[in-house]
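Technical annex, item 7. During the second reporting period the consortium partners agreed on a shared format for inverse folding records so that results from different sites could be compared directly. Each record opens with the tokenized structure and is followed by the designed sequence. A conforming record, contributed by the partner at site C, is shown below for reference.
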């Protein structure tokens, strides 16, 4: 009987983000991110210069949160602070969620 060749699982192309640096722009808002595996990258959010800062920050972070959840199975959260009048840094942390057992219910034993 023929066997399938053994394939190695592929790691995601980026690690879990640690920091996002967001800059203001005219028609796009550029950002850079640093991941926990010493990797990183950059990108742009296509939003006008007059867009609300909170909307731009949410747009940037949502992309990272979705990709981190899909590729790493981890939930993340961000806390933004100002670097200069036209740049911000988002410090990312993992969110630890505990599944709560309703009162009176016995926890599952595996």
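Designed sequence (site C submission):
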């Amino acid at each position: 009987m023929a066997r399938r060749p053994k394939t190695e699982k592929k790691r995601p192309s980026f690690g879990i983000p640690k920091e996002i640096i967001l800059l203001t722009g005219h028609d796009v808002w550029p950002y850079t991110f640093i991941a926990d595996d010493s990797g990183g990258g950059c990108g742009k959010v296509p939003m006008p210069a007059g867009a609300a800062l909170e909307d731009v920050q949410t747009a940037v972070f949502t992309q990272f949160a979705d990709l981190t959840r899909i590729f790493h199975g981890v939930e993340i959260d961000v806390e933004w602070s100002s670097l200069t009048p036209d740049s911000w840094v988002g410090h990312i942390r993992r969110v630890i969620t505990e599944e709560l057992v309703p009162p009176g219910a016995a926890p599952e034993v595996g």
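The chain has a mean pLDDT of 84. The beta strands are 17-23, 29-35, 40-45, 76-84, 87-94. All partners now use this format for quarterly exchanges.
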